[in-house]
Amino acid sequence: MLRLTNVQKYYGGFLAIDIPSLFIEEGLWWVQGENGSGKTTFLKMIAGLHPFNGTISLNNLTITKQRQQFVKLVNYAEAEPLYPSFLTARDLVELYCQTKGGDILFAQELLKQLHVFDAYTQSIGTYSSGMIKKVSLALAFIGQPKIILLDEPLITIDASAVNAICTMINDSYKKGVSFIITSHQAVRSEQLGFTGKLLVENRTIHKNSE
Ligand SMILES: Nc1ncnc2c1ncn2[C@@H]1O[C@H](COP(=O)(O)OP(=O)(O)OP(=O)(O)O)[C@@H](O)[C@H]1O
After folding, report:
1. How many domains, in total, are found in the chain?
2. Is there a domain that residue 49 lies in?
3. Residue 54 pLDDT > 60
4. I need a surface site. Which of 114, 124, 176, 193 has the fewest CB within 10 A?
5. Which residues pair with 10 in a beta bridge?
6. How far is the C-alpha of 81 from the C-alpha of 116, rounded, in Å?
């Protein structure tokens, strides 16, 4: 599914990530690593949000050569999302559905499952941090992604939303969507049955099976 070859990410002169070769099969992957090890950097490179050296390809698409097609297949939710405070959830859903080719009713249903739909037409400036996080998680499911990248999806949200997001992940996974998820929180196997772990250490990433 996802192949990384000679991928290096520098911040100025600082080498944050160095991956000579990594192949990630379809599945539900849990990214683990210490603070500052490079987990967010890894997700942002795959999401097309950070320039890097090397090659990242999804099936036959390469992020640098077929960027538009590639980023349509990869959705990403940030650990600590920020949106302009004057926008409403409806504005964001409409924008995401337009750019990702998604279904507004499906997005609204996800917001209902996360118990944040009541605030659909309110400006984000009136939202709590948990409500913003829930909206960002729902937005990550819009369109026809092949991979969804979730950076710390379980922080900030309440227990019932944790159950709802796990159900959303499992439902999408059954339909063929792969997930790469970072979480410092322990995740019970009955909540999410991970395919395996991607361990981030010493600036590189390897699968736990290696
Ligand atoms: N924009 C940036 N400019 C400079 N250095 C950065 C930048 N973003 C991240 N870094 C550095 O890159 C390294 C990896 O950071 P990253 O945010 O990817 O770690 P992380 O594993 O996601 O950490 P955490 O678990 O704390 O969220 C860190 O040393 C960090 O200081």
Report:
1. 1
2. no
3. yes
4. 176
5. 15
6. 16
**Quick one: pLDDT at residue 210?**
44
Judge whether 56 lies within some domain.
no
Structural domain that includes position 89? 27-37+67-207
What is the average pLDDT across 134-139? 98
The percentage of the chain sitting over the pLDDT mark of 70, rounded to a whole number, equals 99
- ipTM of this model? 0.98
Q: Which atom of ligand 1 is nearest to the CA of 12?
A: 4
What would the pLDDT profile of 77-101 be if each residue is shown by its tens digit?
A: 999 999 999 999 999 999 999 999 9
Question: Among 30, 34, 37, which residue has the most ligand 1 atoms within 8 Å of its CB, making it the best to mutate?
Answer: 37
Ligand 1 site, residue 185, Cβ cutoff 6 A = no
- Whichever domain contains 173, its CATH number is 3.40.50.300
Q: How far is the CA of 19 from the centre of ligand 1 (A)?
A: 16
Residue at 6 is within a domain: no
Structural domain contains residue 85: yes
Mean pLDDT over the full length of the chain: 95
Q: Where are the beta strands (DSSP E) in the chain?
A: 2-11, 14-24, 28-32, 53-58, 61-62, 74-77, 147-151, 178-182, 196-201, 204-207
Q: Which amino acid is at 58?
A: L
Instruction: Check pocket membership of 11 for ligand 1, CB cut-off 6 A.
Output: yes
